[in-house]
Model the fold of this input.
Amino acid sequence: MESSSRFLKRHGHWVVLGLRLLPMFRTVISIPAGLAHMGHVRFVAFTAIGTGAWNVVLILGGAWLGRTLQHAENWLSGGTLALIAMAVVWYVWRIVTWRRGRS
Done:
């Protein structure tokens, strides 16, 4: 426990920066940083850098996904309609062939 506290006091700003890029740990890192008495200015600066990088990744990923799905719209809509049609046919078949269980 003491070695992890020393590590956070020495390298905590880099830990904050790195963990702000990981979805599961981005909110949890505030607690150990506070327990290690990290300075407010350093914490806010490295949080801003890490959060900014995370947002750039999300924005670029969303833009790429939007371009990719725009080209896939034709086959996605056809596939979706086919799945809905198969589900309706299956449901009607189940209603028609349904038999009440013996009591």
